[in-house]
Every structure is written in structure tokens, then in C-alpha cells.
Design a protein that fits this description.
This protein is α/β, with parallel strands linked by helices. It folds into two domains: about 170 residues, Rossmann fold; about 100 residues, UDP-galactose 4-epimerase, domain 1 (Alpha-Beta Complex), CATH 3.90.25. The chain contains nine helices and 13 strands. A seven-stranded parallel β-sheet has the order 3-2-1-4-5-6-11, with helices on both faces. A two-stranded parallel sheet has the order 7-10. A two-stranded parallel ribbon has the order 8-13. Helix 1 crosses helix 5 and helix 2 runs parallel beside helix 3.
Length: about 300
């Protein structure tokens, strides 16, 4: 039994990670402020990661899974407070790559500002750099769009809602823009692989090898909900993010190094089925945006 610290533990990725390792039989501690319902089977360390004092000093962890660090300060405050630990894995983001770089992005690509992600991406860059400066043996994972059970971000949930309400779907342009996804279960399996194999490389892109067009992705979401979409193409203004879940930005991660230690990932259809099953019982947990009202007020005929 390993002692694992998961930062967060109450929302989407960090909650899934915590529950995954509880189910693996590990002793899982979650670090959060105790404001939300905790996953079953975890041990809560109730504290703000920026005001930890000595709460972690006497604890020894086999693994620190840092899911909720977004800035350099997030990293420094946790490292300053930690006692002994063996392995540290940080969930970063594909937003660290500038949109002008050659695609597919490789791990060796120089990180820089991405105009679509702004401070989110540059803050992640600083967090990565601080961690690897202080803990060179740490691992950094850079996922594309994460999805799956527990996703409270209004992405697949938006399409599921449109399908269940028998709405026409307002599709950006011709719908050929492609997306790359990664299921949260595969994220956990990649963590398992890193801990088991301890590769010499310490930064990994992670994701599905296959990309999917937004039209095919919406069609698949509707199919899983038992529906067939009727598309309306939006060919001019407004800005895509006013009525759709993703920026008008196509990018691809090179995941060749991931495949060396994690051979296969979950088929997208299976992952979306699992996401839909969760959504049907947890609609109220999704953080909705006003895409539907914007469509009805500005695009619907």
C-alpha cells in the first residue's frame, strides 16, 4: 500500500485520480479546504495550499500527484511545506506550446505564450520550470482536452444537453476542425506507467493518437445520447467560443513517447459513453456557459 497525496480531490480530474487510487488499494490523502464533499475512502488534509504551515511536515508520501497547480507560487508553496516524498507528478497542459510552433508539438518544442490560452499557459510554464528546478526527478504530463466521468466543464456536456433537448446543432464553419482528447482513466494509467517504469524522460505529451473533427465528435455525442444531429453551419461572425465549447484553434500533440510506455488508450466512443452515463445523473454538477441562450438570441432562425 502506497501513501499518495492528491492535491484537490473534489472536482473532475483530481477527484477521479483520488478515487482511482483508493480503488487500487492505496492510502490516499487529499489536500483541499474541505468546502466540498470528499471522495469516499480518502483521508482529508484540510488546508489551503498557500497556507500550509507545518501540516505536511511530518508526513511521508510515496507519491505526490499535483493536479491543481496552475502557477509557480502553487508549486513553491507546496514544495516548501512538504516533508519527505519519493515521486512527484505534475499535471500540466498542452497550453504551454505557442500556437505558431510546428505541429504536432513535441516535448522538446520551446514553450511560450499561446494567444488562445494566455496567462493560463504561461503560468503553467513557470510552474513546470520551478518544479523541475527544485525536483529534477519529477514528471510533467501535458494533456490536450481531458474528458470522462466527472467532467464539470461544459464540453461534451453541452453537446449531450443539446441532443437530449432535440436541438439543432450550430456547427462552426464546415466542422472539419480537429480535436485531440485524453480520458481521465488513461491519465491515471499513464501515471501508473511512470511510477512502474521510471523512464529517463521527465516531460510527456499525453493524449489519444487519433484526432476527430468537431462534426464527427458532435455526431458521436448525439449518437451516444440516442439522437441524430441536424447541423446548422455558422460561417461568419460571431466568435466561435460564444456558441461552441472550443476555441477556433486546431492543434495536435505528438504522443510517440507516451506510446513507448502506454501502448493503448481508451477508444473515444467508449470514453464518451462513460461520460454520458455520468452526465445523466449529475447534470447539476456541470458549470454551464450561456451557449444555448446566445444561439437562441443571435443565431437561431
Amino acid at each position: 500500500m502506497r501513501k499518495i497525496l492528491v492535491t484537490g480531490g473534489t472536482v473532475f480530474v483530481s477527484k477521479y485520480v483520488a478515487e482511482y487510487y483508493v480503488n487500487q488499494g492505496d492510502e490516499v490523502y487529499v489536500l483541499n479546504r474541505g468546502h466540498k464533499k470528499q471522495p469516499q475512502g480518502v483521508k482529508l488534509i484540510e488546508a489551503d495550499r498557500h497556507e500550509l504551515g507545518s501540516v505536511l511536515r511530518d508526513k511521508v508520501f510515496d507519491v505526490v500527484l499535483d493536479v491543481t497547480a496552475y502557477t509557480k507560487t502553487d508549486v513553491t508553496d507546496l514544495l516548501d511545506a512538504l516533508g519527505d516524498f519519493k515521486d512527484y507528478i505534475f499535471i500540466s497542459s498542452s497550453a504551454v506550446y505557442p500556437e505558431t510552433a510546428k505541429q504536432p508539438f513535441v516535448e522538446e518544442e520551446k514553450t511560450a505564450l499561446n494567444k488562445f490560452w494566455g496567462d493560463y499557459g504561461t503560468n503553467k510554464i513557470e510552474a513546470e520550470q520551478e518544479l523541475l528546478k527544485r525536483v529534477p526527478q519529477a514528471y510533467v504530463l501535458r494533456p490536450p482536452y481531458l474528458y470522462g466521468e466527472g467532467n464539470n466543464v461544459y464540453r461534451e456536456a453541452f453537446v449531450f444537453e443539446c441532443a437530449l433537448k432535440n436541438r439543432k446543432f450550430y456547427l462552426p464553419k464546415d466542422g472539419k476542425m480537429k480535436l485531440q482528447f485524453f480520458h481521465v482513466d488513461d491519465l491515471c494509467r499513464m501515471i501508473d506507467a511512470l511510477l512502474a517504469k521510471k523512464p529517463a524522460q521527465h516531460i510527456f505529451n499525453v493524449g489519444n493518437e487519433e484526432m476527430i473533427s468537431i462534426k464527427d465528435w458532435v455526431t458521436l455525442c448525439y449518437e451516444i445520447a440516442g439522437k441524430t444531429p441536424e447541423f446548422v453551419s455558422v460561417t461568419k461572425e460571431p466568435e466561435q467560443r460564444n456558441y461552441f465549447s472550443f476555441y477556433d484553434y486546431e492543434y495536435q500533440l505528438d504522443i510517440a513517447k507516451q506510446k513507448q510506455i502506454l501502448k493503448e488508450t481508451m477508444p473515444l466512443k467508449e470514453g464518451l459513453k462513460r461520460a454520458f452515463a455520468w452526465y445523466k445523473n449529475h447534470e447539476n454538477e456541470v458549470i454551464r456557459k450561456d451557449y444555448i441562450s446566445f444561439i437562441d438570441e443571435n443565431l437561431a432562425h
